[in-house]
Amino acid sequence: MPYTPTRDRIKPDDIATAKPKRRPPWIRVRAPAGESYEQLQTLMRAKSLHTVCEEAMCPNIGECWGSGTATFLMLGDICTRTCGFCDIKHGAPPPLDWREPERVAQAVKAMNLRHAVITSVNRDDRKDGGAPLFAMVIRRIRAIHPGCSIEVLIPDFKGSLEALRIVMDARPEILNHNVETVPRLFKKVQPQDSYAWARAILRNAKKMDPDVLTKSGLMLGLGERMDEVREVMRDLRSWGVDILTIGQYLQPSRKHLPIERYYTLEEFEELKQFGLQIGFRWVESGPLVRSSYHAEQQVRALSVVHRQLYG
Asked: What residue ranges do the domains of the chain occupy?
């Protein structure tokens, strides 16, 4: 049977009926602007590329694009899942574009990036989840722009070790998969995802290549409790995860899950210190932190793979 995506994005009783909560003063997002931002935007359009910066309405787009960095979105711009926090389009996607890795690699070279972050939509219409394109873009970037470190933020591939092996054999410096929330809220926040699949990907990535840096991320403000957040952090460490990002969930529109509460700067700092105490090698924790925030600093400080390849 052909793949048919779920259309009931969020149940009506999950939508906030009251006015949205007022943002606290410590959350301030600058409007994107500047010469570097405009040049990067022009380059993306010219090469028919997508970025998660735009598709997911990242609050750091102005800061990151202004400094000439971006997170590339591959496998098209239509996702087969219907997560309640995400503003990427969902539905039945077109066939994979096998020329996309070449275009991404050429853009990385044109931008003269030192660190490239590659992510994708979910492609549940394919048994391999689109894993071959991740491997292709890693190898092509290495071929035409040596010295650039590579981070891949991959889907869970439904826990497929075969798909994961395809990516790991290309040896990215950082293998990232975000758990996003606590197990109790998985079916509300990301109804087609599974905590067990996330565990399989993160734990086995480290087993397949002990030198790779593994990474994951959490969003706060969806109704989780602090004890649940700490328990997920302990799980991630037990799976061998090296790097953790923790940020505030910001509702993209009234169609998306509401913000249950805003976390304070002190709470983000508390979680950072807890993460370091239990053994994470790097923790980014703050209201506007997202997956690729300070990613280049992480790989330069921690990556064994990069030193093996380039010294």
From this structure: 34-304
Q: Which two tokens stand for residue 64?
A: 């990151």
Q: How far are the Cα atoms of 13, 52, 263 from residue 76, in angstroms, in the given order?
A: 31, 11, 33
Q: How many CB atoms lie within 10 A of CB 165?
A: 14
Both tokens assigned to 253: 């529109």
pLDDT in tens, 130-156: 999 999 999 999 999 999 999 999 999
H helices then E strands: how many in the chain?
A: 12, 10
Q: Tell me the whole-structure pTM to 2 decimals.
A: 0.85
How far is 228 from 62, CA to CA, in rounded Å? Answer: 32
Nearest to 157 by CA among 100, 75, 87, 236: 75
Give, in order, the Cα–Cα distances in Å from 179 to each of 102, 110, 150, 233, 288.
29, 32, 20, 10, 17
Partners of 73 in the β-ladder: 50, 119
Class of domain 34-304: alpha beta
Radius of gyration of the chain (CA): 18
pLDDT tens for each residue of 111-128: 888 888 999 999 999 999
212, 240 Cβ separation under 8 angstroms: no
The CA distances from residue 54 to 18, 58, 234, in Å, are 27, 7, 32
